[in-house]
User: Fold this.
Amino acid sequence: MTDEPALIDAAKAGSADAFADLVRSYRDRLLRFLLTRCASYADAEDALQDTLINAYRYLHSYDPRWRFSTWLYRIAIRNAQKIRSMNVVEIGDLSDAESDPLLQCIVASETENLWISARRVLTDDVFAAMWLRYAEDMSINDISKALGRSASWTKVNLSRARKALDTEMNSQRAKDEAYG
Assistant:
C-alpha cells in the first residue's frame, strides 16, 4: 500500500505496519528539518522520536483537510521547542564543523553558505519558514499551518528573509573579493 490516504485509514484502524509505511517517507526529511531547529544531532533524533510517537498516539486527531506532512511538521516543531536546549550553538563559534547538525545535512556548495547565513541572520521561525518553503517545497498555507502563523505573516517574512539573505550574501561576496 503506497496511497497516503489509504495508509492513514489503515493506521487509524490500528495497523502499525501502515503507520510505519506512512512515516518512512517523512523520517529523513523530518530529521533534516529538526537538525535546523535543535542544538545537537541527539536532540534532533529525540525530537524525531517524540514526533513519531505523538503522531501515532494522536493519529485519530489528524484532519484530512490538511496535508499529512503539514500535520507532522507541526508536531515536530512543538517537540523541537520542548527539547531545545538553552545552549544553542552559534555557527560563527564553531571550531569543529562536525558538531553542527546543520552542516551534517546540507551539501558543500554555495547552497551551504546560504543556509549557514540564513541560520545566523534569521530568527528561528523565519528560518523554519524558509526551510519548509525551499528545502521541503511546502506551500504558503502548509507552512502557515505548520508554524501556527497566518499566511500573511508567512509571505511577508519569506520576502523579508530573501532580502536579508541577499544583503548578507552580497556583503559576504564583497568581503571575499576584498580579501581574496
Remarks:
- The mean pLDDT is 82.
- The longest helix spans residues 151-179.
- The chain has two domains: 1-87, 106-180.
- The two ends are 55 Å apart (CA to CA).
